[in-house]
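Example record

The entry below shows one chain as it appears in the dataset: sequence first, then structure tokens.
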Amino acid sequence: MPAIISSISHPYWAPLGTAAHEARTSLGLSQAHVAKHLGLLVRDYAAMESGFIPPEVNHALGKVALDQLDSVLEWKTGTARKILDQAIGEAVLPASVPTYSDRGNSTYSTADWTRLGRAVQKARLALKMNKAALGYAMKSTSKTVLRLEEGRVFGDPRTAPPGDYNSEKYMIKRLPLLEMALEWERGQAEELLEG
């Protein structure tokens, strides 16, 4: 079972949790009341409101019928889904975070990716975060994190070892999520890549 990493603010559920908290408190409802209505444990609902959501809680929240949340919080039908869909869209590519698309077809060197990988590993360990938790926050896997930390990222598959590597295009799309998970400043991953 993945460790609970309380330092990760989950990019999908946090905005819905904030809105739900405001609506619940304005209605004078308890977390236990809303959790019961949704068929959740109180701790799982409380995690959603806080935004600090480990993988096992994310799994439980994924089973919630969002129209029930609309109902208990007296929202217009579809409000919870709209908030969640918007949060997912922004987490995949936050509007205020650099897109890294200005690099065109250029490729970072293995040394650049190794430098970033060492910084990622150091930051991850400082947060007491395992590879699975970081992979989850990046919408990826622990194997992707391992490859990144070892600098096994290649822009051109012809220069990569067979099979076990991350593509540069794949990793660049996940840099904003990596920065959020490691509590880095926006653009810090690109700065590390560029030395």
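Notes for this example: DSSP finds eleven helices and two strands in the chain. The longest strand covers residues 153-154.
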